[in-house]
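Continuing the batch. This is chain 6 of the set; chains 1 through 5 are on the previous pages. Same settings as before, nothing changed between runs. Recording input and output for traceability.
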Amino acid sequence: MQPFSYFEAMLILALCCFAFFAGFIDAMVGGGGLLQLPAFFVLQPHLSLVQTLATNKTASFFGTSVSAYRYIQKVEIDWKHLTPAIVTAFICSLSGALLVSHVRKEQFMPFILIVLVLVLLYTVFKKELGLHHVDKSLTRKQYLLYAIGTGAIIGFYDGLIGPGTGSFLIFSFVVLFGYNFLHASANAKVINVVTNISALIFFLIKGAIIWHIAIPVGIANMLGSYVGSHIALKKGSGFIRLFFILVVLALIAKLGLDYIKP
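Output for chain 6:
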């Protein structure tokens, strides 16, 4: 491999800056891809689509792993209940990745935008949503059904399309299981790691990862994730709820502009 030119090094450095803030956002409420993936398209235009997706996913995996580890250290996770969601998310994320070249993502955009708007409205008008743990009194069968459904649907979505996966996971854990935003973020990060691993298996087999870009960008994403998870753990559910609303707003705006522009 030839040494970097000054210009190439500056582009990677700029990408690392975006990756830091993407990791910071993603560690708290998901949606880091809203910042990092467009930065890849702008700053590394010579990469093919599959190389961009693969390298971006690799860098995101580094950061997601750090924030998941931080949450696991500080937040109690019910592994017995989370395991069905983990297993189905892994299988369905890989299934989505395998189908990615056969589907036009634009077909899904109106549906995704409608769901995001509903998520935003529900969160805004339910003032106490996610601020405290709520005992849903779910039966074992109900919990299993919700866990498998959440892992399957959102895992498949992450493998196939991706934007907002972390936010959808957090919202699901808050609404379906009665978690506060802090515990929902912790559980979402664990599943996000699993869906990233599933997608990475696909990209590794295809040999599409550009490692000399993925590694520095991944380190920057890791640093951002560490800072973001630290602040989330310190500030608690109220702060995460506000940040969640802002990120969902930004996600709606970004996906909406992408859909309507020629």
